[in-house]
Amino acid sequence: MPKDTVVKPATVTCTAPVNIAVVKYWGKRNEGLILPINSSLSVTLHQDQLKTTTTVASCRSFQEDRIWLNGKEEDINHPRLQSCLREIRRLARKRRNDGDSSVDVGCLSHKVHICSVNNFPTAAGLASSAAGFACLVYTLAKVYGVDGELSGIARQGSGSACRSMYGGFVQWIMGEREDGKDSVAQQVEPESHWPDLRVLVLVASAERKPVGSTAGMQTSVETSSLLKHRAESVVPDRMKQMIEAVHKKDFATFAELTMRDSNQFHATCLDTFPPIFYLNTVSRHVISLVHQYNRHYGAARVAYTFDAGPNAVIYTLQQHVAEFLQVVRLVFPPDNNNGKTFLTGLQVEPVEISEELKNAICLEPMSKGISYIISTQAGPGPRVLEDPSQHLLGPDGLPKTDA
Ligand code: DP6
């Protein structure tokens, strides 16, 4: 082939984080635009442990938009995917028409190939759609040369994805406008603000896949009066208190609000008709364990929160991690035969726990209840990977064999 007819794709690769809400989003007032009935607040987890990586290639020789997720080609016509693609392209066109020279005009008429992978098992039931859509929107924006407020577009992929557009402590302001323009995420504090804060993801061995959040929250909006009460009368004050607790690094308040909010979210699930059960016996065992541990010390040293599944996410402080982990090992004896390490992520040195503490924990050990634990901390928002060897798509625009 003559040299001048070889068209090389413009390729960008980025990573984006998972976030775990401490004031939960549950319920939409507009399904299409993904506008919530209440504001929410989350902690962005560190990408060293949990992240999505996405490569977008744009080329004039591509015949159609295509997407590969975790090694498998998926339908590009998924409505939420289409919303994100359409909105980013619309924004790029608008910026170009407004005279922004950084917008890549050539790219705008080209089709894209998208390839995305998670560094954690999707089956672990972690909020993979948040990291996935945040990464998609961030990477597309880099390809087209648009920056600035992008969380409103990520929101249209998956509500919680808007919070993964920033690092640290992030609020999603519900907004009031019908067009959703004011329903965006904002950073409350960066990840460096609270260096002692630690996160443990306790991956529960789930028997079956629970009801998805999109369908679950729809039924809650239709049937739960508790959800309405929560959105109107509880969350507005709770958001203020939570933001203040984060600003002041007041762990006791942060912990209590986090647990209360998780409990209320699961109470609205139970108030949904027919009811939705996300917590299982392992989850309830973790809840009891945390309360017994805190009661022993007469202080909230550890907090739990649960999303739309049985996994517990624990927030605590650096000085308590090792001891609390030891208590978890006692109550959930690890299954040493599963060939996996029980604790992954940030290293934690084992410690001895006192007889008093052991006696204070009155729970039957539940072996194999927790399959593994990811130890992590708050982390930064999406990033560009500059090294071309990290692209998931090859020069032909197709996934590299190991992507
Ligand atoms: C329980 O963002 O997954 O994790 O907007 O329908 O995609 P859709 O829902 P999603 O819901 C997340 C619900 C939650 C709470 C939270 O992250 O705030």
Topology:
Layout: E1 10-17, E2 19-23, E3 28-30, E4 35-36, E5 40-44, E6 51-59, E7 66-69, E8 72-74, H1 79-97, H2 105-108, E9 111-118, H3 128-144, H4 151-154, E10 169-172, E11 185-189, E12 197-204, H5 213-223, H6 225-248, H7 251-271, H8 281-297, E13 302-305, E14 312-317, H9 318-331, E15 343-345, H10 355-360, E16 370-377, E17 383-385
Parallel strand pairs: 7-9, 15-16
Antiparallel strand pairs: 1-6, 1-17, 2-5, 3-4, 5-10, 6-9, 7-8, 10-11, 12-14, 12-16, 13-14
Helix pairs in contact: 1-3, 6-7
The structure holds ligand DP6.
Q: Largest sheet, order of strands side by side?
A: 8-7-9-6-1-17
Question: Whole-number average pLDDT?
Answer: 93
Name given to the CATH architecture of the largest domain? 2-Layer Sandwich
CATH class of the largest domain: Alpha Beta
Separation, N- and C-terminal Cα atoms? 28 Å
**What share of residues are in beta strands?**
15-25%
Q: Tell me, briefly, the overall form.
A: globular
Radius of gyration: 22 Å
Bound molecules: ligand DP6
Number of strands: 17
Tally of DSSP helical segments: 10
Largest sheet: 6 strands, mixed
List the helices and strands in order.
EEEEEEEEHHEHHEEEHHHHEEHEHEE
Helicity range: 25-40%
List the uncertain runs: none
Q: Helix- and strand-based class?
A: alpha+beta
Work out the count of structural domains: 2
